[in-house]
């Protein structure tokens, strides 16, 4: 059983909410922008974006899932599904999400409810954004490799310096031991005389 949404549902019952979201999404795909309350727009955004993602797949199974979500039993809704798959989805092919935009437009005159316009972002992804994303990916991978090479160079330098210090310490210890044993031998030799 799916987990119910927190808080009050749009329109009261779950079935009414599903039908409302289906109708809002159909109108959004038909008109490219709709004016509704801010709450409905926020609930519609993930629903519509999921439908667009399904439409980008383009296969018959995705088309059937979208038809089931929009309730495309009428000729107008079938035309909307066709437009979604043939016009909207190819226009969104370069985008990896963020297909809709919500713009607040103030409060409604009668009941002072906050209103918003939800619209499809039909502009193509700007080349600048694509170049910046590619540059970030390119700098992220080579930057990691030199950092690893520098780390191994630093480790090898530290190992060499540690080995040199160990060798010097061993030499000094040997010299100290010889100098300490020499006076002790001389003291023993003097004691025997």
UniProtKB/TrEMBL annotation:
<dbReference type="Pfam" id="PF01196">
    <property type="entry name" value="Ribosomal_L17"/>
</dbReference>
<protein>
    <recommendedName>
        <fullName>Large ribosomal subunit protein bL17</fullName>
    </recommendedName>
</protein>
<feature type="compositionally biased region" description="Low complexity">
    <location>
        <begin position="162"/>
        <end position="186"/>
    </location>
</feature>
<comment type="similarity">
    <text>Belongs to the bacterial ribosomal protein bL17 family.</text>
</comment>
<dbReference type="InterPro" id="IPR036373">
    <property type="entry name" value="Ribosomal_bL17_sf"/>
</dbReference>
<keyword id="KW-0689">Ribosomal protein</keyword>
<dbReference type="GO" id="GO:0006412">
    <property type="term" value="P:translation"/>
</dbReference>
<dbReference type="InterPro" id="IPR000456">
    <property type="entry name" value="Ribosomal_bL17"/>
</dbReference>
<comment type="subunit">
    <text>Part of the 50S ribosomal subunit. Contacts protein L32.</text>
</comment>
<dbReference type="GO" id="GO:0022625">
    <property type="term" value="C:cytosolic large ribosomal subunit"/>
</dbReference>
<dbReference type="InterPro" id="IPR047859">
    <property type="entry name" value="Ribosomal_bL17_CS"/>
</dbReference>
<dbReference type="GO" id="GO:0003735">
    <property type="term" value="F:structural constituent of ribosome"/>
</dbReference>
<keyword id="KW-0687">Ribonucleoprotein</keyword>
<feature type="compositionally biased region" description="Low complexity">
    <location>
        <begin position="137"/>
        <end position="149"/>
    </location>
</feature>
<feature type="compositionally biased region" description="Acidic residues">
    <location>
        <begin position="150"/>
        <end position="161"/>
    </location>
</feature>
<feature type="region of interest" description="Disordered">
    <location>
        <begin position="132"/>
        <end position="193"/>
    </location>
</feature>
